[in-house]
Structure formats: structure tokens, C-alpha cells
């Protein structure tokens, strides 16, 4: 069994709670009322995506290809 470290993005939802997205797995997203719930839900979504990919014989993408950075800008 291989261990994967997928990066996820969390954003506040306009209606409350948080949306979680896994950019290494297109279409893999979830949500939750709290950060903890969104993280638990995206973990489950990632596991389901990986199971489906494995069942179809697809190659699981290398999660290290997703880089996270930060850019600071000023604007008026």
C-alpha cells in the first residue's frame, strides 16, 4: 500500500462553511461547515477518487506535481 500526500485548497463558501478542492485530481472536491469537517470530507472524496481510478486501471497522479506558493502584491 502506498501513501500519498495530496495538497488541498480550502476557501470560504459564500453561503457559509468551506469548499475543499484537490487540484491533482480534477473534479475532486467537497465541502464542510468547518475547516475540520471540510478536511475530513475531502479526504473521503480523495479516497473514493483513488478507488475509482484504480478500478478503471488508471494511473494515480503524482501529488508532488502540485506546488503551493504565495504572492504578495499591493493595489490601490
Using only C-alpha atoms, the radius of gyration works out to 14 Å
Q: Distance between the terminal alpha carbons, to the nearest Å? A: 51 Å
Structural class: alpha+beta
User: What's the overall average pLDDT, rounded?
Assistant: 95
CATH class: Alpha Beta
CATH topology: Double Stranded RNA Binding Domain
Helix share bin: 25-40%
Number of helices: 1
Number of domains: 1
Question: How would you sum up the global shape?
Answer: globular
Total DSSP E strands: 3
In percent terms, what proportion of residues is strand?
15-25%
Placed side by side, the strands forming the largest sheet appear as 1-2-3
Stretches with pLDDT under 50, minimum 5 residues: none
Notable features of this structure?
76 residues; alpha+beta; Double Stranded RNA Binding Domain; 3-stranded antiparallel β-sheet; 3 strands; 28% helix; globular
Please describe what this structure looks like.
This protein has a three-stranded antiparallel β-sheet, with helices on one face. The radius of gyration is 14 Å and the shape is globular. It is an alpha+beta fold. The chain has one helix at 35-55; strands at residues 9-12, 18-21, 29-32.
Amino acid at each position: 500500500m502506498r501513501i500519498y500526500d495530496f495538497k488541498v485548497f480550502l476557501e470560504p463558501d459564500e453561503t457559509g462553511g468551506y469548499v475543499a478542492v484537490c487540484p491533482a485530481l480534477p473534479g475532486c472536491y467537497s465541502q464542510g461547515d468547518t475547516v475540520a469537517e471540510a478536511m475530513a470530507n475531502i479526504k473521503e472524496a480523495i479516497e473514493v477518487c483513488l478507488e475509482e481510478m484504480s478500478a478503471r486501471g488508471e494511473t494515480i497522479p503524482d501529488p508532488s506535481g502540485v506546488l503551493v506558493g504565495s504572492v504578495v502584491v499591493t493595489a490601490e
